[in-house]
Amino acid sequence: MRPGPTSGSIAPSLEEAAMRTRLSVLSASGAIGVLLVVVAAVAIGAEPVGNKADGATKAAVCAACHGPKGISVNPLWPSLAGQQEAYLAKQIKEFRDGVRVEATMQPFVANLTDQDVADLAAYYASLSPCP
Length: 131
Ligand code: HEC
What we know:
With 131 residues, this protein is mostly helical. The protein folds into 2 domains: 1-46; 52-126, Cytochrome Bc1 Complex, Chain D, domain 2 (Orthogonal Bundle), CATH 1.10.760.10. The chain has 6 helices and no strands. The radius of gyration is 29 Å and the shape is elongated. Bound molecules: heme C (HEC). The site of heme C (HEC) has 18 residues, from α3, α4 and α5.
């Protein structure tokens, strides 16, 4: 008996359809994977890791007011030594971005990058606080 006219053609096309479905599921999960990597990179990139040695160099201009060891001698200029790193970074960014306003300090932080801010925060956080 000869095979029916359809038995040879339906099976491969079903197979093909199933294959296409698997392929599109695979490429969709691949796309999600790539997206997750990009989102993670952006999230990490948003908070650069501070380098305190670089921060020490960048703090030369800050020392005039905040003291060479982060301890201020003027009652209106805060000591920064030993302050929380994340808090310092947040405040410096807020001065830079004009959210927190301090006319005397703003010019010194106006052009800092996020990396500069992280370095400065790491540096001041590493210093011994006021006795
Ligand atoms: C001309 C003096 C001056 C210079 C230079 C200066 N600051 Fe300041 N800074 C101030 C004053 C004054 C305040 C307090 C502002 C206020 O009263 O809100 C302050 C506040 C801060 C604070 C917030 C502290 C807190 O406890 O909230 C941080 C952080 C800071 N400065 C970092 C820096 C860094 C980093 C630099 C150098 C890039 C710098 N400052 C340079 C005068 C200065």
